[in-house]
Amino acid sequence: xxxxxSFSCVSHNKPLLSVIVPxxxxxAGIRDLLCILSRQTVLLHELLIVDSSSEDxxxxxxxxxxxxxxxxxxEEFDHGGTRSWISKKARGDILIFLTQDAVPASTDALAKxxxxxxSDETIAVTxxxxxxxxxxxxxxxxxxxxxxxxxxxVRSFADRERFGFQTVFASxxxxxxxxxxxxxxxxxxxxxxxxxxxxxxxxxxxxxYKVAYVADAIVFHSHNYTCMQEFRRSFDIGVLHVTERWLLxxxxxxxxxxxxxxKSGVSCLMNGGKKALLPIFFxxxxxxxxxYKLGRNFQSLPQWLISFLSMHRSWWARSRDxxxxxxxx
Length: 329
Known about the structure:
The protein is α/β, with parallel strands linked by helices and 329 residues long.
């Protein structure tokens, strides 16, 4: 079977689309992603794979599908910097970002994702709905339904009074940006522990653009995190919020959203006949809160402990480590 994708290289009557996928050891599932991308109803101008020196067959599989593959050293991957670098290299007018484990649910998922960008020039970024994978736990599935409801919506800078920190929520696991607008804010910030999408959306809104949540553009994407993994992710969120203070200063504190999550989780388990899971749910909530609070105060912690508490441990080993931030904060 010929897996090669067809890419548009001539007509510019419609915006050119570049799909960008960072990868690392993704051979187990990336074929599913590339198969559905090859069947999309929109014509892709290019498929760019940025691989962090995978040790499996990721690169070979990507090349089977006609992707342009760029391999970088694993230790050089940066959530914002790598995406900015490949964005500047991309030739498309619209940049569509996916992660290697986010698989579109239909052949028109990309068409639906970019539609608001084509119909409203004030919208600079869109992101789609993420549904849980078939193996998702009850709690993992609830988190997806909480963050990605069935109702679509458009948010502007003025909506921060209504939605608070949720105003800047987006996910580069499945998102599209108008390249000229993204370039206007300097693409994605380098050196972040993660959250390059949140920071980019925050800056775009401040420039007068809008973000659209496209609920009918769907991918399957979820994680069955352990308790410790959830703690570490929350720790890193706390680190992001203290190192990028402007996010909270501009869009409000994140704790309100946390309480909404607790109420939603209790309701989900009670109404779904899963009361037995309430103790573990509350335990995870406590761990998330503790992780977040420790992350917000990471500059008071010893370096060896910080690395243990973080999900992105390699980030601390690079130049922007805790000792540097202690001097800056």
